[in-house]
Write a structure and sequence with these properties.
Elements lengths: L10 H15 L3 H21 L2 H19 L1
Keywords: Cell membrane, Membrane, Protein transport, Translocation, Transmembrane, Transmembrane helix, Transport
Subcellular location: Cell membrane
Family: Belongs to the TatA/E family.
Length: 71
């Protein structure tokens, strides 16, 4: 039974991936990329914690403004 090729990544493959990433992006750029990724994940999690009713109220107000401008 074949499940997934990603489950069987070994040490050699991980080393090759890391070396290729260093060659492509350089040593200075990788920490910046990871920092940006971390900020994005943090903002996403904070967005999920927000009150869903607050978003619905904002959308309703925006829709009313659009209707008022058209009519």
């Amino acid at each position: 039974m074949y499940t997934s090729g990603l489950l069987f990544i070994g040490t050699n493959e991980i080393i090759i991936i890391v070396v290729l990433a260093l060659l492509l992006f350089g040593g200075k750029k990788i920490p910046e990329l990871m920092r940006g990724l971390g900020r994005g994940v943090k903002e996403f999690k904070e967005g999920q914690k927000d009150d869903p009713n607050a978003e619905n109220n904002t959308n309703t107000t925006a829709n009313n403004d659009t209707v008022n401008k058209q009519g």
